Amino acid sequence: MTHFTRRATLGLMGGAMTAPFVAKGAWAATPISVGALRFTSHAPSFIALERGYFAEAGIDVNFEFFQAAQPMAVAIASGDADYAMTAISGGLISLAQKGAAKVIGGALSEEQGIDGQKILASNAAYEAGLTDPSQLEGKSFGITQAGSSFHYMGSKIAQAEGAEVSFKPLQKTPAVIGAIKSGQIDAWSIVPHIAKPLAGAGAVQIIGDVADYIPDYQVTTVFTSAKNASDAPDQTRAFLQALSKGAADFNAALVDNTADDAERAEIIKLIAGYVYPDRSVEDARDSVVNGAMRINADCALNRASVMDQLDWFKSEGLVDQDIAYETLVDESYVDIIS
């Protein structure tokens, strides 16, 4: 297996859990770095750490925080992070083709009946007639990088509406937020815990739902280095098992609402500490609740959605045409939703 440094990886980007218990192994004394975004959708990993699920599985986790998906993929491939949970990107697919990364499970999903990602318009664009996605013709759409999940969503929405849009890469999520608030871009799509507070403050307008255009979208996946996937199966299963416990707590408290009030309050407080560290729990509460989309039980992966995303990247010329689904995904760790 080739060793990828972060510098080399950046150059490359240019071109079922069946056991109910995983015993602690030789990796127990080795810190595991987990890539994360300060998004509510990453809550299962925060819950798993704070509630001791990672420790119970014999792994010592620390977080490395990022502001976009593609740099996270770089970190996985270079060994600066061991596991991560984020959207499929062109960079991740290219790194998988180079033998540096593997998708090993599913995380955030769009699900009918659960409030999901929103399509936004700037106030200026809204006042000029962009009141629903059918009016996207000729408009600009914000993305972090070409080949990001924002690019995929924007393209699928525009395609469904028969609209030609221009994509503006702004590198980081905060930069996209600033651009839509100031009217430098016309439209964007983002998770509800960001969309709803922006709209509630009058900074943007919500004009549609991503789920209406991409039903059952596997928004984020769990991934790791190809080396971990092939050479560290016990460690990888331990990580996924602990992450699944965190996801179960999250879904019970904020999605299915089967947890009691005390448990719900505890989960909200825990998440707020990571996602909104500079805000009080009370101030952050609505934002946390608004971000509660389904996290797949047991990290199950939606194969059809991943294949659709891969096909889109190929159709746009963002990845090589001959890359296979099996090159991107290792299906041996989790159940598959077909």
TrEMBL record:
Cell compartments where the protein resides: Periplasm
Source organism superkingdom: Bacteria
GO CC terms of this entry: periplasmic space
Sorted UniProt keywords: Plasmid, Signal
SUPFAM superfamilies (alphabetical): Periplasmic binding protein-like II
A biological process from GO: alkanesulfonate transmembrane transport
The SsuA/THI5-like domain, residue ranges: 40-249
UniProt name for this protein: ABC transporter substrate-binding protein
